[in-house]
Amino acid sequence: MDGEGHFLGEGTHRINNGRFAFEGFRSAHEEHISVGAKHRCLVPSGSLGKAIQNGQQVLIEPGEPRFYADPTFVFSGSVYTNAAIIRHGPIR
Fold first, then answer.
1. Distances from the Cα of 60 to the Cα of 17, 22, 49, 84, angstroms
2. 55-76 residue pLDDT tens
3. What's the Cα-to-Cα distance from 3 to each of 17, 19, 48, 55, rounded to whole Å?
4. Considering only CA atoms, which of 79, 35, 29, 33 is closest in space to residue 57?
5. Residue range 41-53: average pLDDT?
6. pLDDT above 80 (res 34)
7. Where do the domains of the chain lie?
8. How many CA atoms lie within 13 A of 39 on its CB side?
9. Predicted TM-score (pTM) above 0.70
């Protein structure tokens, strides 16, 4: 809406704005959902999420959903924490 993405939770929503564009449904269990510059990451238990924010590699802990409103954010996926070596740019 107005060029900014929004995540809508469960339930019925009434939006009275001519500039609103519905982008579709996504599963709440997906690891990464993005709309515009907004991102929601949900890393599964036993994993670490890998992302880049402001040109820096970051690791995302599992558990609760994490929200980012950053056009530089890029989610690279997740890896199991039992891997012998976890590589993410200079992070090991």
1. 35, 28, 5, 18
2. 899 999 999 999 999 999 999 9
3. 12, 8, 31, 24
4. 79
5. 94
6. yes
7. 1-6+28-92
8. 21
9. yes
